[in-house]
Design goal:
heterodimer, A: two-stranded antiparallel sheet, 7 helices, 24% strand, B: Uridine Diphospho-n-acetylenolpyruvylglucosamine Reductase, domain 2, Uridine Diphospho-n-acetylenolpyruvylglucosamine Reductase, domain 3, Alpha-Beta Plaits, 5 domains, four-stranded mixed sheet, 32% helix
Amino acid sequence: MVDRRSVLKIGAATVAGVVVKMPLSGRSLSAGRAQVVLHRAVFDDRFTECRDFAAELHSAGVFTSAIRGDVAKLWYDDLRVHLRENRLPVAGLTDRVALFCLEELARDVGMRVIFRADHVMDQDGHSQHTAAGTASLAARARDLPQAGFGRTTAVLLSEFDLSEPRDMAAQKLTGPFSPENKTALVTWLIA
Amino acid sequence: MVLPPNVSEADFNAALGEFRSAVGANWVFSSDEDVALYRDSYSINWGEPDERVASAAVASAKVEEVQQIVRVANRYRIPLYPISTGRNLTYGGSAPNMRGSVVVDLKRMNRILDVDEKRAFALVEPGVSYFDLYNHIRERNLKLMLDVPDPGWGSPMGNSLDHGAGYTMAAFRDHFSSHCGMEVVTPDGEVIRTGMGAVPNSDSWQDFYYGAGPSVDGLFAQSNFGIVTKMGFWLMPMPEAILSGTVTVPRHQDLDPLVYEVSYLEDLGLTGMPQYGSPVGRSAFGPGAAAMASLMQNGWPSAAAVENFVAAQKLPAWSVQLYFYGPEETVRGTWQAAKRRIGKAIAGATFQDGEFLTLPIPKEKEPTQSDKPRLGIPALEVFNMVARNAGNTTNPPDGHADLFVTIPRKAAALWESAHVLFEAYKELGLPAQQNPFPTPFTYYSRCFWTGTTVPTWRDPEKNARSRALFEKVMNRCAEHGWVGYRTSPAFQDLLISKYSFNNNSLLRFQEKLKDSIDPNGIISPGRYGIWPASMRKNRA
């Protein structure tokens, strides 16, 4: 569930969250911009893009947690406990089901989805991206690459300024369902 | 900002101030983005003027705070809508029954007050989820088994009060009937305890349901007569083993004796929840799709045509998976008895031994265990199954509303209901999903549920079509005496109107109670059709 190397590296600091300062060279969207304190990055390790997303944030010192579909154990045994203590943002790249469940569960700690970028992938590997929520993130997420968007969205989230005015457009945007014969992944930020 | 009906902004703000005094400022939520957390994700009125959205939410931590909230609400005539965890999606979720209500979020009342292993019960507060109770039991190695719904993110209290059900033995999977004792804050702010809980110093609150005199517990389920703050539940002693076995029968008509034989076993308390299936029907989602389309192309087929179809498919018409809970000798013996009885009753029946598990299941094996709810393990995996259904389209819905109706526990009723649903869909010009191989839901052991699922959207036009379909099907089923047991707030008035014996005398009796117990109509106005007198004109 939790990446062991992250535990060793981050240690107790993870309870309070980790300030992300991404290595932006080579894929910088706007080098040197803001930092964000993330409590956790959640990823579904069945998908390459999700693993890339986690690797990018992990390399920046963010505590990562892997899931395979069901988020129940992660939420009830782990996240809920920490977020009740300290409501730091949680980022993720998962399928829609995981986000749907986490969004409903996050109400228990008074947190909500403030950004989401849906990546609907067909069987040929073609991806269609749509984004909603906090304006600066949503604007930049619409130009994501066909492949490799996991790393790009990780960088994007790392540059996010949490004090930016919120937009409720990402809240409860849709349900858990994926289009027929497609995979719907979502990059998200719950804060 | 949405205001409660007939409440001024000044009064509303004054009430919010008093709520803050009662529970602390951090636990009253009135900003738009906080209130939006309580929207029903599956709403069939999403974004429309009559979407049932809250005006605010208040989260109490103890019963005394609930009492204070109720008293404030009475002073300002603020409608309240209590939720425990608010996860009953398709039935309203965390959104109130009436637009503008203040949600009383009981998530902070999350204490497991007692779990008694030897007497096999638990006493919990509303915010305790099935996961919480399960973990509590496992961490202490208590030899108890939960009966959980699927998904398991709700609370025992909320699920039972909405007449939810699970997957194990009949005595436990009817969650309301397996409760024993409750504590309730009534609309005037009084606290009552039911059954033996009304006896000072009694240590039998969770042992004996009735106490003496009229039992009132049922008044607090699917209703608006109070806010339940504690509830006891009888739990299943952890069985030593669970064994499953699958029966198949060859002919379409074999469902009738199969239902009888399975019901015989279940009514004796020998099996858990039976899982009916149809290999022929299932094939229609794969290699048998063209054949099924051909069978249905000229309307509902005759019994002879159906039987010929089954023979041509070379698949069993029906299957049922049985689950046995108990000591190894007992479960193996009962499965043998089931084979003997069904084999004698139905020519060509086949039997396949299923998984044999000894309990407790080691913690490290839980994550990979299939069919967790059957084993009393709460999970959210059901979302993974439904989210990628074969029925999904290129533009999947945002949610769904479920319409399940109660029918007699017999094959003929199941077939007839499928036919009626088929015709209702056709009348609306929609592709009819039904065929002669429906499988029943068996959550409640003495009846079948059948029905349909209607998509919900963020698009008002599509939702209007879904509402029309839902109402059409509900009306058509009611003509046959098949009526739902639970529905989303959007359809509760319509549903309750079907329980119309003697000019709706049951509802009129409930309204008399409402007027007496809650004269200001502050608790969940409109829940399951019960409106306070001042709002009764709103009834559909």
